[in-house]
Design goal:
There is one protein chain. With about 80 residues, this protein is an all-alpha fold. The chain has one domain (about 20-80). Helix content is about 50%, strand content about 0%. The chain has two helices and no strands. Helix 1 runs antiparallel to helix 2 (about 55-80). The two termini are about 40 Å apart.
Length: about 80
């Protein structure tokens, strides 16, 4: 039977640091804000057209926020965690 020595000095660590997780939460918040800006603008009566669905906020701003949030998430994941040694 083979026995392995265990190294008592090694610690199990997470792949990402605390700062990475904070940045990821901020990125999710940006994405959620973008989706919240997209909602609304519909009409209660299907026979009445509401031009508000084509507003700048829904067509341009909200998708840019979602895209920016996704890029921020990539940055948050790829950022090298700082060591406190």
């Amino acid at each position: 039977m083979i026995k392995f020595k265990s190294d008592n000095n090694s610690k199990e660590t997470f792949a990402l640091g605390k700062e990475n997780y904070k940045l990821m939460i901020i990125g999710v918040g940006i994405i959620v804000l973008g989706f919240l800006l997209m909602i609304g603008g519909g009409s209660d009566n299907p026979n009445v057209f509401n031009p508000e669905i084509f507003s700048f906020r829904r067509i341009t701003l909200a998708p840019l926020l979602v895209l920016g949030g996704l890029l921020f998430e990539i940055y948050a994941i790829m950022k090298k965690p700082t060591s406190n040694k």
